[in-house]
Amino acid sequence: MNARDGLQLAMYTGALMALTPWLGGHILRAANGERHLLSRFLLPVERLIYRTAGVAPDEEMRWTQYALSVVWFNGMGLVLLLVLQMLQEYLPLNPQGLPSPSWHLALNTAVSFATNTNWQAYSGEATMSYLTQSLGFTVQNFLSAATGVAVLLALTRGLVRRSTRTLGNFWADLVRTTLHLFLPLSVLLAVVLVSQGVVQNLSPSAEATTLEHAHQVIPLGPAASQIAIKQLGTNGGGFFGTNSAHPFENPTPLSNFLEMLAILLIPSALCSTYGHMVGSRRQGWAIWTVMMLLFLAGLGLALWAEHQPNPALGGLPNLEGKETRFGIANSVLWATATTGASNGSVNAMHDSFSPLGGLVPLVNILLGEVVFGGVGAGLYGMLMFVVLTVFMAGLLVGRTPEYLGKKVEAREVRLAMIAVLAPCAIVLVSAAAAAVVPAGTGSLNNAGPHGLSEILYAFASMTNNNGSAFGGLHAATPFYDLVGALCMLLGRFAVIVPVLALAGGMASKKVSPASTGTLRTDGGLFMILLVGVVIIVGALTFLPVLTLGPVIEHLLMLQGRVF
Amino acid sequence: MKTIVTALRLLLVLTLLTGVIYPLMVTGIAKTCFAKQAEGSLIRCQGVIIGSELIAQSFTNEACFWPRPSSADFATVPSGASNQGPTNRDLKRAIGERAARYRDAQVPADLLLASGSGLDPHISPEAARFQMSRVTRARRLTPGQQRRLESLVEQSIEPPQLGILGEPRVNVLKLNLALDSL
After folding, report:
1. pTM for this structure?
2. Do residues A200 and A307 make contact, with C-beta atoms less than 8 angstroms apart?
3. Which domain holds residue A260?
C-alpha cells in the first residue's frame, strides 16, 4: 500500500462522512413531506401519483397492514418481472433478438430483484433485452430500495411514537422515498457516469472490425440509468455480466469512486436521519460510528491480505480478476463496501481474491450486512442488534432493559432474535445441503477448501440479499435457482415482518424518564457492547465453517498448495 | 382487497415513472451532452468502426502491444472472468503458459493474470515498457524510430485521474493505433 492508496481511502471515508448529515436531513424532509430544493417540481408529481393510484397518504397503518402492503406490493412487482422475462422474446426493445430465459432462471431473477438481492445467474448482455432491463430491473431497483427505507421509517416511528398503534403509511413512504430521494440522485449520477463513458442508448450492438481483422460485437444499451440506481439503492445487479468490472459499466477511476460512494451514501445518511427522528443526533452518530469501526476493521484486514504475494502462484501479486485502472486498493475498498452494504455489485472478482481478502466480504455478509448495510435494511438490521445489546446489558446489571425510554420486553427480544438468527440458520442449512448433494457440488469452479467458500458465499449472499458471488460457481441450474429463490425470499421477509411487528409493539408503549440506572445508548460503552454483540453472534454461528473454508485455504496457500 | 388494488395501481404508476420516463430522460440528456460516450466511445477509421476505446481487443501480432490475458478470450457477449481462486491448479498452469509466450523471466504480473471483465483496455506502464523490445524487433525499427517508440509509450501513460484516483495505465488499442505514426 502506498501513500496514494491511503489518500484515496481517506477521500472516500471523508466524503461519506461529509455528505451524511446533509443527505440525512434531506431524507428526513422527504419522508415527512416537507419542502426542499426540488420540491417545487416534485410535489405536484407526488400528488399526481397519489391521485392516479388512489392513495390516501395520510391514512395511518398498523404494523399488520403495513407489513401486508409491503408483501403485496413486492409480490406483485415480482410477478410482473417474471411475466416480463417470460414474454421477452415477443416484446419490443430487444434488438439482439434474445430469447426468454428458462422459467427457473426467470423466477430466481424476479425474486432476486424484488428482494433487493440482485443475485444474477445470467449475463445481462447475453440474456436480457433492453426492455427487461429498464422496465423490469430498473423499476425493481428503485422499488425494492424504497421498500427498505420505508420499513426503516416505520420501525423508527414505532420506537419514537407513544401509546399508539400506527407506524405511518407505506404507500406514502414508498412514493416519497422513490421520488424525492432515489430519482434525483439517480438522474445526477447517471449523467455523470455517461460523461465518463458508461453507455446509455437504445441502439443495437455495434459491429466492429478489429485491427487484427476479427469481428467484434460491442454490446450497448440503457446501462447508465440502471447502474446509477443499482449503486444508490444497494441493489447491485449489473447491466453487463462482469458488473462494474466491465469498462462500459465503470470506465474510469472517477466513475469508480462515485459508484463506490453511491454504495454507502444512503445507508450512511440514514443513520443521521434516524438520529433526527428519535430526537437525538448522538444516537444516530453512535450507530454510525459502530458501523464505521466494523467497516475499517474489515477493510484493513482485506487490504493487508490482498497486498501479500501469493506463494501458491509463484509469489505473484493478487491481480487475477482485477482491472488495471482500479488496482488492488480500489478493488478491496469496493469489495468491503459492497458487502458491508447489501449492494453486491463488484469491480473485481471476489472469487479470485486471496483467502483472507475473500474472507472479509464473506464475513461482512454473514454478519447480516449491518456495516451500513442495505438502504434501510442495514439500519433496521443493526437496530435488532441494538435491541439484543440493550437486553444483554440489562441482564448483566439486573434491570429491565430500555431503549429510547421504552421497556424492551420478552416479545421484543424474541422478535429481534428471529430477525437476527433466521438468516443465519437459512445460510447454514442451505449451504450444508449444497455441500453434500451432487446438484450443489456439480456447480463448483474451484476445488479444495475454496469450493466450500464458493458454496457458502452463494447462500450467504442470497439469504442476506447481497447478490455478489464467488462468481465461478455455475449458478444457473434448477437447484441453485430454486433453493436460492427460497433463501432470498425468506432472508428478506423473515427479517422485515419481525421488524415491523417489533415496531408495532414498541409504538404502543409509554416512555419512562431516564434515571441514573439507565444505560446510555449514545456513549462509548454502549458502542463497544454493540460491536461485541455483532461480532460474537457472527463468530458463534460461522467460525466453524469459515475455518473449513477461507482459513484452511490461507494456511495451505502459505505452503504453496494448489487444488 | 383494497390493499391489493392499491398495490397494483401504484406499481403500474411507479413502473411508468422509473421504468419509462427515467431511462428515457437520462438517454435524452446523455445524447445531448455526451453523445460519443453514450454510444460506446467508438473509434472509427475511414467510416468503419474498429472498436471502442474502452473495450480490449485481442492482439497476437508480435509487432503490436498485447493486452492482459482474457479468460473469456476477449468475448464481449457475454464478458467473463476466470473466477479462479488463489489455490487453483488451472490458474497456476495458465500463468506458466502465458509466461512462456513472452520468453522472458520477469514478466509484469498484469500480463500473466487475467482481468475481471476479460475486456480490460489497459495494461500497466511497466507492461507497456516491457513489450517495447519485442515490438522494436518485430517492426525492425531504426534507432531513431526506437526513440520515438519510447517517447510514444511514455506519452500514452494515463496518470491517476485528478492526480489521485486509480492507477497509472496505458490504453493498448490507442497505443497500437499510434504505432502507425512511427
Report:
1. 0.97
2. no
3. 21-279
